[in-house]
Amino acid sequence: MIGIAYARRIILKVFYMEGHTMKIQQLSVFLENRPGQLNQALHVLANAGINIFTLSLADTPQFGILRLIVRDWRKAKQMLEEAGYVVNITDVVVINVPDQPGGMAGLTGIFEPARINIDYMYAFNNRRGENTATVAIRFNEPDAAIKLLKAHDYTMISSADLDKMS
Prior knowledge:
Layout (H helix, E strand, L loop, with lengths): L3 H14 L5 E10 L4 H11 L4 E8 L3 E8 L2 H10 L3 E13 L4 H7 L8 E7 L7 E8 L2 H10 L4 E2 L1 H6 L2
Antiparallel strand pairs: 1-3, 1-4, 2-3, 4-6, 4-7, 5-6
């Protein structure tokens, strides 16, 4: 019989190898498209002491979608929902890209032959001062995208890496 600690290490290793820890949970908050709505949602998070790593705002004539990556997404979701907001959780992949001409073209070019679609992406502050740009990307097939990124030696930010950022 194997020990619990050993079994846990094996499970975590398999989990990591499959790319599951490379998926970051993003909050999508639906806002009315009128003045003050963004500010109110951001104040809910500020008052709860929740730090925002990155955000993106998209709009339609009727509503806006505030996409956020935060330190404690469960608490953020709870606080926003208690304040009356509709919140969805989506997995994104956060990737370091060479900060040079063609860096993004190189990244996006690996997905077309594999027929993996990029639904959307936005910039992410990696706060490391490295010579890299960092993007959060929503893929139609995130597991396949993660395998492809690993095969092309791209560095991804894991949930554990996010916890180390301040």
